[in-house]
Amino acid sequence: MTDDTIFEEERTLSSAADITALTRLLGQQDYADVATILESLPLEDRYLTWADIGLEHRLGILVVMRSDPREALIDSMSLLELDALFKGMDAEDLVELSESLPNRLIDRALSAMDEIQRHYYEGAKKYDDELAGHWVSHQFLSLPQNAKVRDALRLLRRELPEYIDTLFLINRTGGFSEAVRIGSVIGAPDHLPLTDLAEEDFTVINANDDATDASLKVQNSRFSALPVVDENSILLGRLDIGTASEIVNDYYEGRLMATAGLDEDEDLFSPVKTAAKNRAVWLGINLLTAFAASWFIGLFEATLQQVVALAVLMPVVASMGGIAGSQTLTLVIRGLALGQVNDVNRWALLRKELQVGAFNGVVWAIVVGIIANMWFDSFLIGIVISMAILVNIITAALSGALIPIALTKLRLDPALSGSVVLTTVTDIVGFVAFLGLGALVLT
Amino acid sequence: MTDDTIFEEERTLSSAADITALTRLLGQQDYADVATILESLPLEDRYLTWADIGLEHRLGILVVMRSDPREALIDSMSLLELDALFKGMDAEDLVELSESLPNRLIDRALSAMDEIQRHYYEGAKKYDDELAGHWVSHQFLSLPQNAKVRDALRLLRRELPEYIDTLFLINRTGGFSEAVRIGSVIGAPDHLPLTDLAEEDFTVINANDDATDASLKVQNSRFSALPVVDENSILLGRLDIGTASEIVNDYYEGRLMATAGLDEDEDLFSPVKTAAKNRAVWLGINLLTAFAASWFIGLFEATLQQVVALAVLMPVVASMGGIAGSQTLTLVIRGLALGQVNDVNRWALLRKELQVGAFNGVVWAIVVGIIANMWFDSFLIGIVISMAILVNIITAALSGALIPIALTKLRLDPALSGSVVLTTVTDIVGFVAFLGLGALVLT
User: Fold this and answer.
1) What distance in Å separates residue A104's CA from the closest CA in chain B?
2) Within this chain, do residues B278 and B404 fall inside the same structural domain, yes or no?
3) DSSP characters over A39-69
4) A133 domain residue, yes or no
5) B424 with B405: CB under 8 angstroms?
6) Residues A183, B159: contact at Cβ < 8 Å?
7) What is the reported pLDDT for A5?
8) What is the pLDDT of residue B17?
9) How far apart (Å, rounded) are the C-alpha atoms in residues A401 and A421?
10) Across residues B336-356, what is the average pLDDT?
């Protein structure tokens, strides 16, 4: 019972401290930080706190929240509360929330929207959420191609959307033609055609471009937003640097979580059952590979019985290979993600990684060999483990370079599956090389 | 020799294809993509290509490049070329390049700058590169606190810097007072004081704030830049969303590379010697932990000799613990990085992770127990491995939650050292639990 009392106390404390912070952040409309605080609360606390947050803030908070915790909060809301939420919603909000909403609620939200927002929503939904077209914003300023500076100035007097530093010029068919910096319009002569001020070589995003690549383009463009066009060059909207940054950050979080077989949306305090289920798959996959490695060890039972030192040293061989391989793997996965590894340079890369592997293989083979020799007072054991380490580190370099390239060709995500495949290879090669050599030399 | 010919051919191909792309990208001043291409070239090719790139493009490219490849290119340049580079450089460029420049070249660059840029550079250097003050940009628009709309409009007619959507109002002592959206200035009456249009609760960054936290604030602010002030509230400059995105992306890359003991600046084609050295440290640390685990296995040599099945199944126990632990570890490290894990909720988090661990521990203990029982036709081996798996998965949950929290308290980076410590614990606990129980029950 003492334990429970402690937790009760903690919970009350947590709420009290957070509520002061929350009130301040809500006042500043700092919804990202509010979302972070909510996500950091254990479930019961989170529901209680959520119930206290005014309806006017809720949409802003939900939109920036990770989808797992968001889903739980949406589930906790009554239909009346949801209707209030839907009232203030535009197409982009619904696109963001749609993955957390069941279809009947999406329909309900759509019927609360006006025609144009519904149209925008249908447009975004034509593109998968991995594509730039899904994330288009319709808050932009555009003018016909033949507009003059004076027209632009009139437009600028209206309320400007966020992240705006250019005006888009559109041709007669609705196609994007050029972009003009707002900075160059202010102060220019009234009658000047805007095309005279247009940017040269302005980057345009295709709606079918990968969303992360497109977002990196926006971040590197030094503009606050880039236009997004469909396959007929029709201007659909723009991708602004705020949205782009969210997409890039989600992408990186996804890759970090993938290293442990987790999803970027995983809730810090998801219900135990959900969390356990999410993780069980990864443990199951890993169990298969672990048993595969064990099966190979099992082939050498007789040898292990005769030379028990092999059983003692076995994990060293496997683990050195695993670490060396994961270094190459991590470097190559990053290179692939950045578009730095391609069909042309991959042989040069493989050669370099093999050289690095050979170098470290020799160094650590000698070190481990000497230690093993001294530990078990056997020159032969030293030789056997040296050879096994050398073989495994070189195999690891080879696998670390080739596995992610092969997985990418097979359209599998190397960030997710690369390390499992790699570890399986380095475990099996490590055990077989070590025990096999041991069987040959020592028995 | 055949091998070498293939590589020669590849190299020529690579250069030919890339040079067309490079010429186009240089024309668009898309320096980020140029940097990516250069980084993807093997070293000799990279030097050759670099020599072909016009001096006018070089600064732009170097500034966006990762520091390892950048350093190599700078080393390849003559003093004459470097002087040409330094001529066009402002304080922010030098701050960016300074980590790749030896001190004598920094002095040379400084002496080519005018007084004010030198002053800016000294200002930035007062702050470590982990702090927001280091990354301040001086390209901003400011007016005295009592300025009117008409003053702002006059200012806006000058060339606007990138990523500008607000004007900063400064008080008499140079302190930041308020921010006004450019959008609300255009179209407002000429005589209106700007303070009437000022934003409420505008976020201000302190120069001593952590650079990544500050950058995330900029990304979440929905503004293109936020002001940075020193400890006396004096306005030093601003942090724009372009720089903020670079800082955040570097941070994520650093965390991804840290999972393999690598640096985010690691060059895809660093010289073999450098690469091998960079990685050797991590392999060495890992070797120590692997030998520690082996030492514990060695305590059970007699048991292993009697029941060789234990040697065969040993890796399964260790690996299930390692995977389960890394799942908790990854979740907690992310929570710590996002500021979601704090002194108050960490007990609730630990309790949840222990429950998840207990759940998966029981499930996988049963599965592994049944498989082991069938494989070795021994009920006792099944029981022993079941118990060991259960103990190790629960230990893993406990360690995965507590290790990163403890490392953070010790001011160590859990992203770098967390997984090594965790694997050591799960390996040792796994081996000792399994072999220890085996010794008790089976011999």
Assistant:
1) 31
2) yes
3) HHS-HHHHHHHHHHS-HHHHHHHHHHS-HHH
4) no
5) no
6) yes
7) 41
8) 62
9) 12
10) 91
Whether A360 sits inside 8 A of B276 (CB atoms) is: yes
- Residue A137 φ/ψ, nearest 5 degrees: -110, 145
Backbone angles phi, psi at A343, to 5 degrees: -60, -30
Determine the residue among A65, A257, A360 to mutate to test chain B binding: the one whose Cβ has the most chain B Cβ atoms within 10 Å. A360
Same-domain check for residues B252 and B301: no
What local confidence, expressed as pLDDT, does residue B189 receive?
A: 94
Percent with pLDDT over 90 in chain A: 75
Reported as type and span, the H/E element at residue B408 is helix B379-409
**A227 touches A145 (CB < 8 A):** no
- Structure token pair of residue A250: 């989600």
State the DSSP H helix or E strand holding residue B240, giving kind and residue range, or none if neither.
Answer: strand B235-240
Distance CA B408, CA B413 (A): 6
The encoded tokens of residue B234 equal 């004096």
Residues B242 and B294 in one domain: no
Bridge partners of A32, per DSSP, are none
Residues 6+ apart with CB under 8 A from A80: none
Domain region containing B53: 2-135
Tokens read off for B326: 């890394």
- Cβ separation A201–B29 shorter than 8 A: yes
Shortest CA distance to B236 belongs to which of B92, B336, B112? Answer: B92
CA distance A221 to A62: 29
CA B16, CA A443: separation in Å to the nearest integer?
A: 57
Residue A67 — pLDDT band, cuts 50, 70, 90? Answer: confident
Residues 6+ apart with CB under 8 A from A104: none
At residue B73, does pLDDT exceed 70? yes
Under 8 Å between Cβ of A167 and A141: yes
Contact B349 A269 (CB under 8 A): yes
Residues A253 and A276 in one domain: no
Helices (H) and strands (E) in chain B, counts: 19, 6
- Residue B263 covered by a domain: no
Closest alpha carbon to A391 in A428, A439, A345, A420: A428
In this structure, the answer to whether residues A290 and A415 fall within a common structural domain is yes
Positions of E strands within B49-93: none
CB A226 within 8 A of CB A203: yes
Give the pLDDT band (50/70/90) at residue A372: very high
Q: Is B279 exposed, middle or buried (0-12, 13-18, 19+ CB in 10 A)?
A: buried
Torsion angle of the four alpha carbons A82, B219, B210, B252, in this order, in degrees rounded to the nearest 10? 90
CA A195 to the chain's CA centroid: 39
Is residue B267 assigned to a domain?
Answer: no
Residues of A in contact with B255 (CB under 8 A): 256
Assign A229 a pLDDT band (cuts: 50, 70, 90).
very high
Residue A317 has pLDDT above 90, yes or no: yes
Q: Does residue B126 sit in the same domain as residue B61? A: yes
- Hey, is the C-beta of B154 within 8 angstroms of any chain A C-beta? no
Angle A100-A101-A105 from CA coordinates, rounded to 5°: 170
A162–chain B Cβ distance below 8 A for any pair = yes
Residues of B in contact with A354 (CB under 8 A): none
Residue A245 tokens, joined: 């940054």
My answer on whether A150 and A281 are in the same domain is no
Strands A225-229, A205-206: pairing is: parallel
> What ipTM describes this predicted complex?
0.91
The pTM assigned to this predicted structure is 0.91
> Cβ distance B368 to B433 under 8 Å?
no
Q: Are residues B416 and B299 in the same domain?
A: yes
Q: Is pLDDT at B23 greater than 90 in this prediction?
A: no
Mean of the pLDDT values across residues A266-281?
A: 90
Q: Chain A neighbours among B 305-344 (CB < 8 Å)?
A: 305, 308-309, 311-316, 318-320, 323-324, 326-327, 329-331, 334-335, 338-342, 344
Residues whose CB is less than 8 angstroms from the CB of residue B409 and which lie 6 or more positions away in sequence, other chains included: none
